[in-house]
User: Fold this.
Amino acid sequence: MAALTFSIALLMPLASTKAMTAGPVAQDAAKEEADAYGAWYAAYKAQPSDPAKILELGKAFVQKFPSSKYADFIKKDFAREYGILFNQAVQAKNTAEIIRIGKEVLATDPENLDYLIALSIQTRQNELFATPANFAHSADAADFTERAIRLMEGGKVPAGAGDKFNKNVTLGYMHQTLAVIAEHDKNADKTLAEYEKASALDAANPTYFFHCGRLHNDKYAAAAQKYQAIPEADRDAAEPKPEVKAALEELNKQADAVITCWARFLGLTAGKAEWPAETRGKIEKALTDLYKYRHPDSTDGLQKLIDQNKSTTPPSNGSR
Assistant:
């Protein structure tokens, strides 16, 4: 390592006609900086590498000597050391450490899309979609995911994404993450909204349509219960009251939404071994019953609707 030389001029008011100097002070400061840089450089070159120590010494150096000619070089190395630490935490599936490191990076680079996506994926895989699921860091997961979505919607893409990066598929995946968190938080409306966003972005993913249908079916059941609670005389009146009309409209709206979602699900999963016949059979029965309700006791057209939804491109008949 080259020796460090410094020339520091101290401007001070004259106490007399005799010049005043501070040579020893300048020499002490130069030695302190040289020693600090030497300690960092020794850690930087050491084998095996200790990225945590390199970062600690590097941050201390930059904080104390921000104007040093070595400060920029040391700061540029932070990304490498953080990357090593982050990958070690990923390999260990240490979600708390993954989040801690990610937050340190984002504190100085809040729009680092690569870290935001990685943090969203890691918390999802390690906790939200684990068996059993763990929502200890769901608030952080939602924050990382929402920030990544905003950046991608604004046109930003991950560094070195290449031609294989599919923005819509990635966004759909992230809206599903938010849906899972919202459902755990018992926010049914947000859960449904996130699944509908996901299905609109990635119309070839049957999972999103399964859940859209499931959630609309819950709303249909609630609407049916509300409608059935209305006295029969009011329901059968020649001129139903406004509140009766509104209840029936909501019932039909939710039934149609279930039909739309589950017809798409059945179309996309036809012949797909990864979707058990038992699951598809239950969905098909429920869909058939709803279709009969909306098309009085007739299933004419149901199979055609399902067949139209076999394409990965959404049909033009109103289905997503």
Q: What stands out?
A: Residues 1-22, 316-320 have pLDDT under 50 and may be disordered. Residues 203-320 form one domain.
